[in-house]
Amino acid sequence: MNCVLELDAVGHVFADGSAGLRDCSLALEPGLRHALLGANGAGKTTLLQHLNGLLQPSTGTLRCDGAPFDYSRRGLAELRRRVGLVFQNPERQLFSAQVDEDVSFGPLNLGLDTATVRARVAAALAAVGLQGFDARAVHHLSFGQKKRVCIAGVLAMEPDVLLLDEPMAGLDAPMQHELALLLERLAARGVTVLLSTHDVDFAYRWADRIHLMAAGSVIASGPAQQVARNDKALRAAGQHAPAALALHSLLAARGVLAHEPAPRSIDALLEALRTHQPQEATL
Known about the structure:
By secondary structure, this protein is α/β, with parallel strands linked by helices. The chain is built from eleven helices and ten strands.
């Protein structure tokens, strides 16, 4: 399968001489849900900013649709039209006084007509559950609402790829659930989604592909079920095995459940236990 974005052996050295990425390679297959896991300082944010063109590799190559990326002004404008990035801290992304002004900024810069921009803003705000917030002052919004305005601003650009840096951080449980549903809808529409997270249980439950980072490099990539069983790589990335997988392994070893298929969430594990015929149970 062709990849919409690829980092090939990318290194990045900051102005102070510190290394952000080291020989880092990553391939994003289109239309899939990708989760990026790693400890603080592993390079997740730096990687996302390379995929959006905010940072340029010191070594290595960024490829778009298989071709080396052109860092010209025109190339960067096209990349940022196709690849939207949502920062972890909404204060870094919001700069207009009013919600509709902020969400419309990107589409207006594309040269779209007023009617099209209004339609995109309305659709984007509806997608994040902020209908009727058009005229709200941004500084009066809660942290979670500001985060959703940032996502709406990116969605209004109608990107092919959506990058989210720790999108669940600072959101309460209901908001996290709403965001997960939104990401499901976007993936169903064919949008390629890559999010960074510290939540291995969410990544295992939600993602098609998991990518593990440590010390500025992606050390493991693959289907979520495969990477989640790579204990050595998980430990190197400062992660633990997903709880559902760990509990299922224990129950399977005791003959309570079959070894396959492994449930992707605690809810799925509980459902498997509810429907299991316990003839061989040893607990």
